[in-house]
Specification:
Mean pLDDT: 97
Shape: globular
Low-confidence stretches: none
Bound molecules: 5-S-methyl-1-O-phosphono-5-thio-D-ribulose
Helix content: 25-40%
Distance between the termini: 32 Å
Structural class: alpha/beta
């Protein structure tokens, strides 16, 4: 991605550490900070300085590499620390398991973490190629393709390109006219990050309150929905940012295709049922406050699950680096 004409990634290796784009400062300020230890990485994941399933995985991989450089006997302790930083995105566990395997095979952890990061870029690019065809098909009979997305599943959630936004960038770059409805994604407002990304890339878009999406779908203002995922079970149930399920329901009612884009590292082959996905519960002040401003009376009880589960039956198709498949077709697509 280019920011102010300069090629930029969310995470970049530097001497003795990695430089990350601090996402808690966006979209107001573009600030990079340096992580040098496993503790730094766990802290960055927990506080959402880095966020988005693929990027969380890459950051954890570097975290483990830092720990092992300092103390070659610390693999177990550092893995547990990193694994406890956020519970829902399975990419974190995937990255730690891949690193542990590499370590067992005497592969340099720093090299392996770098490989995971590079592969993420290639994977997201391939997701873009798979998904852009869906957009292009609609462009054959409509002057502007209207897309709805939720949360941020763009390059900020990955190393580069993104998952759900990658097909949009690809189609836009190929000259297809795309307009994106961006739902704001209360309470953490990741939609603002999506708007910032789309603006930087020159993709036309409109930010809407989460509650507006059903109305847009019912009025025929959306040709397709595409979102990312934090964990997809073997049978195709999808955990994604809270509010995704409601959009999938509204899309089904409106007969609008609902796509979910993700890389192989987001699939949890160990579980079948969406109900078994651990759902992160975040601090209630994210609901009772906007920024530092209290919007609910003192003492109001609040509940703040960060993700919900969309059952496979509501998903039209999955968009992956291996191509597009029906939501019950993952095991065939990834069969060795
Ligand atoms: O809580 P976040 O911001 O880390 O949420 C993760 C996400 O960005 C989304 O759920 C996204 O759609 C999946 S990650 C590409």
């Amino acid at each position: 991605v280019l920011i102010d004409g300069k090629p930029t990634r969310t995470i970049e290796p530097i001497e003795g550490g990695v430089s990350i784009l601090d996402q808690t400062r966006l979209p107001h300020a573009i600030e990079r900070i340096v992580l040098r230890t496993a503790e730094d990485c766990a802290h960055a994941i927990r506080t959402m300085q880095v966020r988005g399933a693929p990027l969380i995985g890459v950051t954890a991989a570097y975290g483990l590499a830092f720990a092992l450089k300092k103390d070659p006997t610390s693999a177990e302790r550092a893995s547990q620390l990193l694994l406890s930083s956020r519970p829902t995105a399975v990419n974190l566990r995937w990255a730690i398991e891949r690193m542990r395997k590499a370590i067992a095979e005497s592969i340099d952890p720093w090299i392996e973490a770098g490989k995971i990061a590079e592969e993420d870029v290639e994977t997201c690019k391939a997701i873009g190629a798979s998904g852009s065809r869906l957009i292009q098909k609609i462009a054959e009979y409509k002057p502007t393709v209207e897309v709805l997305t939720h949360c941020n599943a763009g390059w900020l959630a990955c190393v580069d390109w993104g998952t759900a936004l990658s097909p949009i960038y690809r189609a836009h770059d190929a000259g297809v006219r795309v307009h994106v409805w961006v739902s704001e994604t209360r309470p953490r407002n990741q939609g603002a990050l999506t708007a910032w990304e789309l603006r930087s890339h020159g993709v036309p878009h409109t930010l809407v309150a989460d509650n507006t999406c059903g109305h847009l779908l019912a009025r025929g203002a959306v040709d397709l929905c595409i979102v990312g995922a934090d964990r997809v079970t073997a049978r195709g149930d999808v955990a994604n940012k809270i509010g995704t399920y409601l959009k999938a329901l509204a899309a089904r009612e409106a007969n609008v295709p609902f796509y979910v884009a993700f890389p192989h590292s987001t699939i949890d082959w160990t579980i079948e049922r969406g109900e078994d996905i651990p759902i992160e519960e975040r601090a209630t002040d994210e609901v009772t406050h906007i920024g530092n401003v209290r919007i609910a009376p003192e003492g109001t009880a609040a509940y703040n699950p960060a993700f919900d589960v969309t059952p496979a039956r509501l998903v039209t198709a999955f968009v992956t680096e291996r191509g597009v498949c029906a939501s019950d077709g993952l095991s065939t697509l990834y069969a060795k």
